[in-house]
């Protein structure tokens, strides 16, 4: 799938490939308030205790975890002090040995690998099928379960309504089937390109952008009237503005065409899951922090409800409430790169918590839930009997403030006194849909070291969202937000995939690795990846990482190609 919002924002920070699972000496030295997530073993002694929600978090860890105290409607905001003392000389001179959990005989978590963004050309032709087949054979040799691929709306229905070209995808799927791999397929109704890491540009279908030239209100719009062509506004979900069809009818027709075209792959269970794109980057959120409008991390973003269709919806809601003067967006919510305390709306005690603020945020977030509800209902009709999923973005910056401003502008009504993810989880449950969450490998400590002003807490957000999903018994899958090739990064993913001592044995339903590339196929990186796959599958591994001479020869060939 296209680079996610989390991948993009973290490309703006200094790259750190090590997402460690232990509290390292250097991190203790450089930060007064280190943070270790659920289930980590480190030099700090973590005594695990049971919460009423059924999760286990450390009682001595200097972390906030997700800790939403539902009974009290409160959220813990402060980090407790570090209890262990560390001598500075020891910190500098004594490297810590990496401590790893033994995942032998733990639950089997399937591993998928995302294919390159440009694996199918704009003419819907498979690019370099021989090279791709060679790489897929190597993935198969280490027991990867399958691959994920975007089926781009802008490629398949590019030139005319209801004229679909699936040829390149058919050739790709045949190769995957011949190698006895599985497929996760993304219905990508968004634009690809414009984010860091996007190496191709795939716009929306040409006939759609032509409509947008005469009616730009089909796109999300900010307060200053700037349009965002990444995807269509949810305001036209039920408006017949697309050559006589509504947006949801267009999405349904596309999905139905796909189901008919690839019937044999469904019947043979080659296609294991359909992920339905619901917004920018395929994520269920508003495009509240677009790089094209000069947003920079950790800006709070802006509300995206100023196209005429969404404003009509807001006016209708205000009239129904009996306050027509509330038919407006906030006029004191700052701009893309504001901080919460700079605004009258998001600051502590700000207008977000007023009667008007609550009305607006309820409406804004409900539009998001309603969009997901409509599209997933039609997806279930198109793909009856096949698992469907929705991708949710991890908006973790400003999580440790009362308003959670960045989440609010993205459509997640999740201030400190409200669980904004439970309604989304309930909607997914209604349709039997899985949740794919994007930032499970990120560490709060890294955020505090690199951007302390952002008051971010990715680990706290992760466990709140996972709890919301697991509370309603829906599957939760994940993917890495940044490229990962090292053991510490893989260990972090493993710890989140299979929480330590969870009383109900909850774990991720699948993990999708970002992404197939020449760097991954380099011999050392691929050996680490193979070890990671085994552990996710619950197999025993050797610390020596022994590999067969045959596989070493295959990988050396890939290295030679990369060097050339």
Automatic annotation (TrEMBL):
Binding site for substrate: 150, 190, 198, 391, 396, 438, 480-481, 515
Ranges for region Disordered: 75-97, 544-564
EC identifiers of the protein: 3.2.1.2
Swiss-Prot/TrEMBL keywords: Carbohydrate metabolism, Glycosidase, Hydrolase, Polysaccharide degradation
Biological process terms in GO annotation: polysaccharide catabolic process
The keyword Hydrolase is assigned to this record: yes
Broad enzyme group: hydrolase
Identification of the protein by name: Beta-amylase
């Amino acid at each position: 799938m296209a680079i996610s919002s989390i991948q993009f924002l973290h490309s703006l920070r200094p790259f750190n490939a090590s997402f460690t699972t232990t509290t390292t000496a250097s991190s203790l030295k450089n930060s007064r308030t280190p943070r270790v997530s659920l289930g980590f073993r480190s030099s700090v002694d973590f005594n695990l205790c049971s919460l009423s929600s059924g999760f286990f978090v450390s009682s001595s860890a200097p972390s906030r975890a997700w800790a939403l105290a539902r009974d009290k409607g409160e959220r813990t905001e402060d980090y407790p002090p570090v209890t262990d003392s560390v001598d500075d000389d020891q910190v500098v001179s004594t490297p810590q040995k990496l401590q790893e959990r033994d995942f032998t005989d733990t639950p089997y978590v399937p591993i998928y690998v995302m294919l390159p963004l440009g694996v199918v050309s704009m003419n819907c032709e498979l690019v370099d099928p021989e090279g791709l087949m060679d790489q897929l054979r190597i993935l198969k040799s280490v027991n990867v379960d399958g691959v994920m691929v975007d089926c781009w709306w802008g490629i398949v229905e590019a030139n005319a309504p209801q004229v679909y070209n699936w040829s390149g995808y058919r050739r790709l799927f045949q190769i995957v089937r011949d190698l006895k791999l599985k497929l996760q397929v993304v219905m990508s109704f968004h634009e690809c390109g414009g984010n860091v890491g996007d190496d191709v540009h795939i716009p929306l279908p040409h006939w759609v952008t032509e409509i947008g030239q005469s009616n730009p209100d089909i796109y999300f719009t900010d307060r200053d009237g700037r349009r965002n062509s990444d995807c269509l506004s949810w305001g036209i979900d039920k408006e017949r503005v697309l050559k006589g069809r509504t947006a949801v009818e267009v999405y349904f027709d596309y999905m139905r065409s796909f189901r008919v075209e690839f019937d044999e792959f469904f019947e043979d269970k080659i296609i294991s899951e359909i992920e339905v794109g619901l917004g920018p980057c395929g994520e269920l959120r508003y495009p509240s922090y677009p790089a094209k409008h000069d947003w920079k991390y950790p800006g709070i973003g802006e509300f995206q409800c100023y196209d005429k269709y969404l404003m009509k919806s807001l006016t209708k809601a205000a009239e129904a409430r009996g306050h027509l003067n509330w038919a407006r967006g906030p006029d004191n919510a700052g701009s893309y790169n504001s901080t919460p305390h700079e605004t009258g709306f998001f600051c502590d005690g700000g207008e977000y918590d007023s009667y008007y603020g609550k009305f607006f945020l309820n409406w804004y977030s409900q539009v998001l839930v309603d969009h997901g509800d409509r599209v997933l209902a039609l997806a279930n009709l198109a793909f009856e009997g096949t698992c469907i999923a929705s991708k949710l973005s991890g908006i973790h910056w400003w999580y440790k403030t009362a308003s959670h401003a960045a989440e609010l502008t993205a459509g997640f009504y999740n201030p400190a006194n409200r669980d904004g993810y439970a309604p989304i989880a309930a909607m997914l449950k209604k349709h039997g849909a899985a949740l794919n969450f994007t930032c499970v490998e990120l560490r709060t400590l890294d955020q505090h070291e690199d951007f302390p002003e952002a008051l971010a807490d990715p680990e706290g957000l992760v466990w709140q969202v996972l709890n919301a999903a697991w509370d309603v018994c829906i599957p939760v899958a994940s993917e890495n937000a940044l490229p990962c090739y090292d053991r510490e990064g893989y260990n972090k993913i493993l710890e989140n995939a299979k929480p330590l001592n969870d009383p109900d044995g909850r774990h991720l339903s699948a993990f999708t690795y970002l992404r197939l590339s020449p760097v991954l196929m380099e011999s050392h990186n691929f050996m680490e990846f193979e070890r990671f796959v085994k552990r996710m599958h619950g197999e025993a591994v050797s610390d020596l990482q022994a590999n067969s001479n045959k596989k070493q020869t295959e990988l050396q060939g890939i290295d030679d190609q990369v060097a050339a």
